[in-house]
Amino acid sequence: MKKISIVIADDQMLTREGLRTILDLEDDLEVIGVARNGQEVCEMVDTLQPDLVLLDIRMPVMDGISALKRIKQNHPDVFILILTTFIETDYIVEGLANGASGYMLKDMDADKMIASIRDTVSGQFVLPAAVAAKLAARMNRFNEEYEQWQRSTLEQIKLTDREEELAHLIIKGLNNREIADALHIAEGTARNYISNLYSKLEVVDRAQAIVRLQSII
Question: What are phi and psi of 41, to 5 degrees?
């Protein structure tokens, strides 16, 4: 059975060696290298080409996020688990955005840690409940801020009488020909009105326009 080869990167010797001891007790896991900083782990991955890297966030010389970016750029198939003792949403988002396969807390039980490594190599995404809760809270705040921005933007959009008339016809689902007939104008003129309204609403098609107009009218 091929063992899962692992490189550990952490600036704390006790953490590095403690993890090595725990993982080397497993028949299917093998720690093939330990690094003290981001620069070392990047060079180690280039040389050893492990299956997985346990990567601390805060390290000297090169931090974990910078190392993550470099490793994924040069070795996109290497799995990377962010290894940390703290949960900061900025690091969570940045790590995931740059290709991390998940997060692993340093105070996790050994059994959960080992299971997380196996799950990661099998293609699963690993996110402890505490990290997931932080990420969910961050997303909720983002959604609230976006909705507030959207409401503020919509409040600033003022439609003329003609545009309001046109908007009601669009919401009803009338096509360009039907809108032209309803407004007693040429179809080409109706298309121009609709195009100008799209620009004002900052939308690109009828479906988007209807959604935005329903929020305004």
Answer: -70, -35
| C-alpha to C-alpha distance for 102 and 95, rounded to whole angstroms | 8
d(CA 65, CA 99): 10
Task: Determine the number of helices (DSSP H) and then strands (DSSP E) in the chain.
Answer: 10, 5
Q: Which of 70-79, 91-100, 105-114 has the lowest mean pLDDT?
A: 91-100
The boundaries of every CATH 3.40.50.2300 domain in the chain are 4-131
**Angle, helices 206-216/187-201, rounded to nearest 10 degrees:** 70
Q: Which range, of 3-12, 31-40, 82-91, 95-104, averages the lowest pLDDT?
A: 82-91
Q: What are phi and psi of 29, to 5 degrees?
A: -120, 145
Q: What is the spatial distance between Cα 117 and Cα 51, in angstroms, rounded to a whole number?
A: 10
Q: For the whole prediction, is pTM greater than 0.70?
A: no
Distance between CA 48 and CA 12 in Å, rounded? 21
Token code pair at residue 50 = 């492990």
Domain 150-216, second-level architecture: Orthogonal Bundle (1.10)
Those residues with Cβ within 8 angstroms of residue 69's Cβ, 6 or more apart along the chain or in another chain: 98, 99
Q: What is the C-alpha separation between 163 and 165, in angstroms, rounded? A: 5
| CATH number assigned to the domain with residue range 4-131, chosen from the 4 options 3.40.20.10, 3.30.420.40, 1.10.260.40, 3.40.50.2300 | 3.40.50.2300
